Amino acid sequence: LWESARGIFIIWAISSWFRRGPSTPDPNTPAGAPRVPTSLHKIEEVFSDFNNTEALFWFQRDLVYGDWNMGENGDGCYYHDMEMDIPEKVQQNGSLYIHVYFTKSGFHPDPKRKGQYRRLATVHATRMLNKFKRRKFLKTKNLLTGETEADPEMIKRAESHGPVEIISHWHPNLTINMVDDHTAWVKGSVPPPLDQHVKFDAVSGDYYPIVYFNDYWNLQRDYYPINETLTKLPLRLTYCPLSLWRWQLYAAQNARSPWNFLPEDTYEQSDEDQDSVKVALLETNPYLLGLTIVVSIVHSIFEFLAFKNDIQFWNSRQSLEGLSVRSIIFGVFQSLVVLLYILDNETNFVVQVSVFIGLLIDLWKITKVMDVRLDRENKIAGVIPRLVFTDKSTYVESSTKIYDDMAFKYLSWLLYPLFGCYAVYSLLYVEHKGWYSWVLSMLYGFLLTFGFITMTPQLFINYKMKSVAHLPWRMLTYKALNTFIDDLFAFVIKMPMMYRIGCLRDDVVFFIYLYQRWIYRVDPNRVNEFGTSGLDHDQKNTAEAAPATAGAITDKPVGEKKND
């Protein structure tokens, strides 16, 4: 998300604050550049019927290359709106192409007109106007009644076309940019992804003016499907010059590596993620937006530091005194439920990898809070060695285990009734794909809503021990700071209200931790459960250091004693 936000923010900043003015005119032409008439056509992928006046969508005269002051508003831009009749094949999931021709003044784009056509005086670019997107149909129903609220027409299409259907979609806006560029590009040396847009003449080796179809700010939510019920399609075309720097940014953001191993679904979900960032850029106050960009960098740093300190804390921890082992075990259960849930709902591949890594870390923590061994004598089915988990001695022999068991006993009095009520609600009022999906969605929804309750056993242990010195405060601090940053994102970027409430409740729990840290300050006079205090340790260390100091003084040679 941050990579997308960073790229989009740069584009937005340049567009708003540093809009480029007219570039230096080409000295080879008297007026900077020839006047260019333009014609646009909507028809097949390959176009040749220049005599068909019905195919002409827009004709614009007297365009000047690199002129940033022409146009209706003096900003270098021209606009054209029109509704088009939809060909029958397009209604049936066909494609619709637009062909753009730029010619020097006095020339014609039709190659058949020998006296009016010249190859180097004509620039041609084409683009498919519609976009094919996947529409998934999740066949869900109420598991008790078997009824569903899905559209009957959608159910029929799912039965005939399958759960995934490729449907043509339409967006009514498209921007045609002529890149204001005087770079001496050489064929074979144009860096990717710019090389996809720079066309060279096969004979002379010169490159044509760069025409770029810009749909970067077309939000995915504004696309709508094309079907038999539509008879006309609106289209608003915009022509504007584009600076080289901005074109490079747009091209880089829209580029997709041909070697990328991620599935196609990942791209679609990535587009949706970028949509949320674009909406934030378009609808958020610029100062708040700038603050969000800065704190997102800080968020990444804190996330790394929290991860590093968490690993260091558990890797070097020798005693489990004061730590809730049951909370660690329950954390593994939570991570497993989340992973199975996102796999069942075919969530973004990157998210799946992230959650899987988190599960591995939680499993690794189990080896730090419990003794794990393989029992090769009592094998499962006589073949597979059995894993045996036993509590560590530092946990069993301390009062922590008693407090931990007591906390979870009190917690179960609240947790189990809530769990039962949520399970009944999910079964009665929510549709599911099957019983397996119901179990996962019910567990996930319950953990999302009431999962913060599992953080309370550690608060209870702190209260009973009247101490918080055993906690990984560096890791907790970094995670808390990230939670505050998440609060900012939660109210800048559109997201479910339940997630916003989740961020707020985590803040409340951390403030309770801070309150406990304030009231349970380090008191060297306080005696712990082992009958010792901080002063006892200081006196012991002083007593051990005193003989060594005295020996160091008395062992000096006689000559040095006189000097003293």
TrEMBL record:
<feature type="compositionally biased region" description="Low complexity">
    <location>
        <begin position="542"/>
        <end position="554"/>
    </location>
</feature>
<feature type="transmembrane region" description="Helical">
    <location>
        <begin position="287"/>
        <end position="307"/>
    </location>
</feature>
<feature type="transmembrane region" description="Helical">
    <location>
        <begin position="349"/>
        <end position="366"/>
    </location>
</feature>
<keyword id="KW-1133">Transmembrane helix</keyword>
<keyword id="KW-0812">Transmembrane</keyword>
<dbReference type="InterPro" id="IPR008429">
    <property type="entry name" value="CLPTM1"/>
</dbReference>
<feature type="transmembrane region" description="Helical">
    <location>
        <begin position="410"/>
        <end position="429"/>
    </location>
</feature>
<keyword id="KW-0472">Membrane</keyword>
<feature type="transmembrane region" description="Helical">
    <location>
        <begin position="435"/>
        <end position="456"/>
    </location>
</feature>
<dbReference type="GO" id="GO:0012505">
    <property type="term" value="C:endomembrane system"/>
</dbReference>
<feature type="transmembrane region" description="Helical">
    <location>
        <begin position="323"/>
        <end position="343"/>
    </location>
</feature>
<feature type="region of interest" description="Disordered">
    <location>
        <begin position="538"/>
        <end position="564"/>
    </location>
</feature>
<dbReference type="Pfam" id="PF05602">
    <property type="entry name" value="CLPTM1"/>
</dbReference>
<protein>
    <recommendedName>
        <fullName>CLPTM1 regulator of GABA type A receptor forward trafficking</fullName>
    </recommendedName>
</protein>
<comment type="similarity">
    <text>Belongs to the CLPTM1 family.</text>
</comment>
<dbReference type="GO" id="GO:0016020">
    <property type="term" value="C:membrane"/>
</dbReference>
